[in-house]
Amino acid sequence: MASFICTMAASAGESPMLEALVSSGDLPPLAERIPASPLVVTPVDRVGDYGGNWHSALMGGSDDGWILRTLSYENLMRWSPDWTEVIPNIAESVEVNDDATEFTFKLREGMRWSDGAPFTADDIRFWYEDLFRNPQFTPSAQEPFINTDGSPVAFEMIDEVTFKFTFANPKGLFLQYLATARPLDNAAVRYPRHYLEQFHPDYSDDIDAEISAAGQADWVGLLTSKANFWANPDVPTINPWVFTTGYGSGDASRANAERNPYYWKVDTEGNQLPYIDTRTFDILSDPQVLVTKTLAGEIDFQDRSLATPANRPVLFEGRERGGYEFFEQTPASPNYMIMMFNLNHRDPVLEELFQNKDFRIGLSHGMDRQEILDVVWIGQGEVAQTSVMPGSVYYNEQLAKQYTEYDVDLANEYLDKVLPERGGDGMRLRPDGQPLAISFAYSAAVPIFGDALELVAAQWEKIGIRMVPTPLDRTLIQTRQDAGELEGVAWERGGGAGQEVVLDPRWWFPSNNDSYYWAPAWTAWFLDVNPETAQVQPEEPPEAARRQMELYGELQASPDPEEQVRLMNEILDIAAEEFWTMGVAWQANGYGVKKTNFLNVPASMPASWIYPTPAPTNPEQYFIEAQ
Which residue numbers delimit the Solute-binding protein family domain (predicted)? Predict the structure, then answer.
């Protein structure tokens, strides 16, 4: 039986901001606010200084990823800062039986929500019994809380601080799943029972009035909105900072947060974290404004939407004037830009075309990747398809390098098999004789994708393919994705290195919500969504994808790390043969920006959503050096 236990230290100091509240009687003493065994965080540089405001920015109205990465990475388990192991976090300890079917967690006695209410196993039970097992709130159970047959995991509350998950089959990746930032993986610890019961029909006699007052259609929408900590400042959390002005509420140009007085972590000298008192998130619509703010010294720490290869020269030149410096990020993404076609498009003509491998191969040979790399990413990187990065036990040479040669004649040879007819302008016609014009969507918050796609469009025009780069708000991309209307989409991140390859196989086969970009109906089938409630109707995938899904189920069930590697490599072999998606080039090492007095930031960290950068480096121990 494996056990994971954290060591602790006695509590000592706290922020002067909170000392004043204790002195006035508005807040209990520190010893009454933190657990008997708080989690000890080792500072990167030194024990920090209290105070200050961390200023960063969000792009548009749905950029919650930056919040999840820097403010709310609080799961039962977490990644170690070097991304080599899973360690306890909210859980003080966990015991796993020999065949990885039983996981017994012990919480921290005396831990509290941000409003001071106790955080106990009863909160986990509320999530499990009243939300996860409620068919209205959770129409279909999903990973990681399901057995291999799709049935839900069993739950037992043993006492106020102890509970157990029991699976019907070995669940070799369960603790790794619990360390990621995906919403489902930390769902069990995001629902404070004492606050949310009032919005649940089993506990509230006034639920209809609550639904009406909130402008929601039903109790599911009501509770979901009330549980959204970045939009609803009233919901208690266990995060280091709590919102005072929500994202999407109040001042539309800014969201604000302040320290959680009941935060349950301390440094090595017993001082309560976080060191920084407040957070400010400017809400911007133009990424260039973020660059301007950084050059003016107004951004304390940021990588998201800022640290692009195109911005690197101007940000490098402005370091002294802006009072900031770079830190390194090592890439985990499988490509600078992943290009996908919607293999389940609602138009049957486009669906058949996009599913034709010869079509995708022809377009791949029609891309001059070196030109794109040189112009858009300043030559920083290496031409490659969407693939696992070299050096990994999962690296697959065929997946990485096939069809990357720029050859117009070869491209035309493949395309002539699929689209032999052309119009008077020389552009290829659809199989039904209509002009072909492919809309390729990308996030307007990532303009570098637009630069790259403009080059691709010019290159594809030479082989008779009209492609139109289409910048969209991420919310609209999501809406069109759910409706099955996307034709092509450019994206990045996920699955290229480290633990991501196995935990986030979105590009290798239709496997998780991000696979909806290229195979929504097949993904819905794999996730076993309820067709009566799902926006995307499930459709049985072809044999190759089904085989990948079977192999992944075997991998998830295996407690043997070597067997997991073997099975994942077989999945990647099939991905190479099917050539589901295309890429441009592997990324060079990236960077982030921090003020020179913004300390306890590691010199280097992985750039990964599964990691999820920079969360495992413990932003609660970042601090602004007192001047």
Answer: 85-496
